[in-house]
Amino acid sequence: QVQLVESGGGSVQAGGSLRLSCAASGLTFSSYHMGWFRQAPGKEREFVAEISWRGGSSYYIDSVKGRFTISRDNAKNTVSLQMNSLKPEDTAVYYCAAAPISTGRAYEYDYWGQGTQVTVSS
Fold first, then answer.
1. How many CB atoms lie within 10 A of CB 113?
2. Residues 28-54: pLDDT tens digits?
3. Distance of CA 46 to CAs 26, 73, 92, 110, Å?
4. Angle, CA 42 vertex, CA 36 and CA 48 arms, to 5°
């Protein structure tokens, strides 16, 4: 049974930082590209960042470039999202997900976590 479990969410003021982590089990972690998505109230789920299966490449949506950094540790089956200079518009539930190919499309991700709430106040 595949499980992705996010942690690290919380409430911060604008300009602050949070580090999200996602622990994976039940899958060959190093064979999957890992992504982070987010969903704000009343909005569709949005791609945030993805890292390749070996960690050699990553990409981000424009709104988080220079502020967020995705990383992974294949020895520990974890993927992280370091979020700096947070803004109120970053407020959302953040999900990690696993895909067999490099893609920013949510429907191509096979496995999803339950999400962790991030709230940024102004």
1. 22
2. 999 999 999 999 999 999 999 999 999
3. 25, 24, 10, 16
4. 15
